[in-house]
Amino acid sequence: MAFLELENLTKRFGQQTAVEGLWLGVEKGEIVSLLGPSGCGKTTTLQMIAGFVEPTSGAIRLEGRDLLAVRPAQRGLGVVFQSYALFPHMTVMQNVSFGLEMQGVAAAARVRRVGETLELVGLAAFAGRFPRQLSGGQQQRVALARALVIRPPILLLDEPLSNLDAKLREEMQIELRQIQRTVGTTTLLVTHDQAEAMALSDRIVVMNHGRAEQIGPPHEAYERPATPFVASFLGRTNLVDGKPVRPEKISFGGAGLAGTVRTRIFQGNHWLYQVETTRGLITVIRQNTGEVMPQEGAEVRLVLP
Asked: Which of 3, 54, 66, 110 is buried most deeply by CB count within 10 Å?
């Protein structure tokens, strides 16, 4: 029996089905991402676990007990929203302490636990500041600390890094992974960002139109996609003779499929090519090793895996 179990979970809003027959088991200490485009049902799934949305049918069990029979406020889950939802009139310490006050934790214990949690997220020196005095990344860490300080059995993260710029998002992905590994809290992450899901997760649930199209480790879903949707959603892919081929698995060589470079784009650590061939337009990604690369209009040969 898994630590968290979603059993045939379904949610309909009138005639619209948001989530259809979702089965998922999450082990204790695991971090699982619900990944998919807008409207695929991932946020609705998270909200059903949190208790903000009532399922149409199905069950949610936490350590074998029926979570749907427990009021949302009593579930004790840690939630971090996309907007962070910090109290602007409270300091960092007061924001993080709020959940403990609601639980009736004694003042001395509150101070100790808040201090430990702020230390964990690297904000001990910012305890007296207000949210408006913090950067986006610091606000995100305050929201994370507020969720973790109550020692939740499950941490629910709803697009927590989407408001950050690309560089800071990468840094926070590393920090979030390290923090999760340190505390060992079972975590469900909702994201539309494939790179984020693959960087952070033990397993990913690729969702489309309310259904889970594939559940498994990120590398497995990437290398062996179960459906055409999974193949196309998890990074770029080419369909050659009906088979999906990743662009980075294709190389230029002296023998292979003949083609003409239509477009090449420099993207820092790699080159992105589009090559016209008799089998259609093929995307090629080659690492930037410093060697001379084919120009637009050049005749090339593609070595396919």
From this structure: 110
